[in-house]
DNA sequence: CCAACATATAAACACCTATTCATATATCGA
DNA sequence: TCGATATATGAATAGGTGTTTATATGTTGG
């Protein structure tokens, strides 16, 4: 178990940073937040967020590679979901940080 | 109060994304993690992480602007600290996501 | 005031990445 | 199988960004 964050090895922090970087793009963050509400197809995400299906697909591939999103085929479409609940915690904590910061 | 993350306006998610983007750089993330252990001067951060003081100063300016870090003068050096506790939560949650993902 | 130290700032560069456009793959209905 | 739909992939590009180098600002002690 990890007691102090300072014990993190360099390559671990690199992986961590990669995760944060993925959430650091507005389009991708919106996609993740949309997925938190429940599984969605590529097309419905694109429509909701006014993004091209191609762009959404690109982003989803990265999110999948980082285990942030998972996918499952449903007919001719792909249903994407958020892989685990920690992502929701991460985002909610950051929302609190931002809203508290607003004086 | 915010019930669902999907209620976030576009400009709010943009601010959120900016926060994540800041943690998305390895050097900056290491700086933040180092600061979680307690206040540090620019020079000591640079020494600890083997980064140039100039680079550390650059990053700290961005972290300050995002209210992730705060600073206070102590003699001729500046003591930097993490602004609030949510940042620690965010990072710890992400650590859990990453370590769980490793099968 | 002056030298030494600590931090900040500015410009420049190399690298990365988000987006678009075009094309490919895959699934279903007829 | 064929056309239509849904998603994925590849190349190309424009804009952004981390890092370095050089210089400036500010603080302490003499």
Write structural notes for this entry.
Two copies of one chain form a homodimer. Chain A is an alpha+beta fold and 103 residues long. In chain A, 60% of the residues lie in helices and 14% in strands. The first copy, chain A, has a single domain (14-101), classed as Arc Repressor Mutant, subunit A (Orthogonal Bundle). Chain A has five helices and three strands; from the N terminus they run ααβααββα. In chain A, strands 1-3-2 form a three-stranded antiparallel sheet. In chain A, α2 (26-36) crosses α4 (53-65) and α3 crosses α4. Chain A starts with 9 loop residues before the first helix and ends with a helix. The structure holds a DNA duplex (30 and 30 nucleotides).
């Amino acid at each position: 178990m990890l007691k102090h964050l300072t014990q993190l090895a360099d390559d671990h922090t690199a992986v961590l940073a990669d995760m944060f970087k993925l959430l650091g793009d507005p389009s991708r963050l919106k996609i993740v937040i949309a997925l938190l509400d429940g599984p969605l197809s590529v097309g419905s995400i694109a429509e909701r967020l006014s993004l091209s299906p191609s762009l959404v697909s690109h982003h989803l591939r990265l999110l999948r590679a980082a285990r942030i999103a998972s996918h499952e085929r449903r007919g001719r479409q792909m249903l994407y979901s958020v892989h685990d609940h920690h992502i929701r915690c991460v985002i909610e904590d950051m929302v609190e940080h931002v809203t508290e910061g607003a004086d």
